[in-house]
Design a protein that fits this description.
about 150 residues; alpha+beta; 5-stranded mixed sheet; disordered C terminus
Length: about 150
């Protein structure tokens, strides 16, 4: 797990998942993360893990459902906020079209609420009317999730 035992930083985990997707599918995943991203979450391993699970779900959703050819994952620090996004050039979706027995989007929203983050999902992306953009923004000083209750979200 990212952050729980400091085995992996979030930027390394994103790169590793991108490599795995690139190796197993025709989808091309590109990752653009700033050098300061790793240090931003190190003091908060429970937060890092929740952020990772949100971004991981967005990346896997793009692979599984979007019929995209390209995905871009971006991450950077602005002031005291971490900004992460996953964008694809796939077919997009309407919230009403999401499978009722699938909890991926709901889980992402619940995790974002738990860490006091802003999660936005735009699909399709205007003005092109294709693709999906998942963006996550949260304060790096947020302490909403402790290691003891972070496991309740999984």
């Amino acid at each position: 797990r990212v952050g729980e035992d400091s085995r992996s930083s979030i930027d390394a985990a994103i790169e590793e998942l991108a490599d795995r997707i690139n190796n197993r599918s025709p989808l091309e995943v590109k990752v653009f993360v700033s050098a300061d991203l790793k240090d931003a979450l190190t003091p908060h391993p429970a937060l890092m893990n929740e952020v990772w699970l949100i971004i991981k779900e967005a990346m896997l959703n793009a692979e599984r459902h979007s019929q995209a050819t390209q995905v871009e994952v971006r991450g950077r620090i602005r002031a005291d906020h971490l900004l992460l996004s996953v964008a694809d050039n796939g077919r997009g979706f309407k919230a009403t079209d999401a499978d009722s027995d699938s909890f991926g989007l709901t889980g992402m929203q619940e995790r974002a609420i738990a860490i006091e983050a802003e999660l936005n999902i735009q699909s399709p992306i205007t003005p092109s009317d294709i693709g999906t953009l998942v963006s996550l923004k949260f304060r790096t000083t947020c302490r909403a999730v402790s290691p003891s209750n972070a496991s309740d979200l999984g």
